[in-house]
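FAQ

Q: What does a record look like?
A: Structure on top, sequence underneath. For example:
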């Protein structure tokens, strides 16, 4: 999935310190087909998540989202489940890097933004261009930190492999 200017979807709301074992329980690490990881995303936290999440839905979380192990399986599970982005107050550094690497947009909530008013199940619009999470039905706007620099460039093309391929083969369309 390449970075789009705006995504529309249902908001799944998570709290602080959601670790990689909550995102993808360790018992599912033996999957041999990476795309199958999405079937087990949040199996322990939201047992019906994989069956109910729709392409483009996104997660709104608190502090330190993705703490725990350094494995890429957790962001891959979210990506293959169809999650369009993860918006959080802060991310565990390795989760953030892994998400960018695989092309899963991760965006931080700007300081002073009142994301607590957003409810699970709200329909939202996440504008990467405007750096805003909007809830039109309730007139809410949550300001976000703009994506910039190398992270933005990598996300625009869908991940680090696509980014490197474009750098190494500029004559070939990606």
């Amino acid at each position: 999935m390449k970075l789009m200017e705006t995504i529309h979807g249902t908001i799944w709301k998570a709290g602080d310190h959601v670790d990689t074992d909550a995102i993808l329980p360790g018992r599912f690490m033996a999957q041999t087909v990476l795309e199958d990881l999405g079937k087990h995303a949040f199996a322990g936290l939201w047992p019906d998540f994989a069956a109910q999440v729709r392409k483009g839905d996104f997660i709104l979380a608190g502090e330190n989202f993705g703490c725990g192990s350094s494995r890429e399986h957790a962001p891959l599970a979210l990506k293959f489940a169809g999650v369009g982005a993860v918006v959080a107050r802060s991310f565990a550094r390795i989760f953030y890097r892994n998400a960018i690497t695989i092309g899963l947009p991760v965006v931080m909530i700007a300081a002073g933004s009142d994301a607590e008013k957003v409810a699970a199940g709200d329909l939202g619009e996440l504008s990467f261009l405007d750096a805003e999470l909007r809830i039109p039905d309730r007139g809410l706007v949550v300001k976000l930190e703009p994506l910039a620099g190398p992270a933005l460039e990598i996300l625009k093309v869908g991940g680090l492999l696509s980014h490197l391929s474009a750098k190494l083969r500029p004559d070939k369309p990606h």
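Q: Is there anything notable about this one?
A: The chain has six helices and seven strands.
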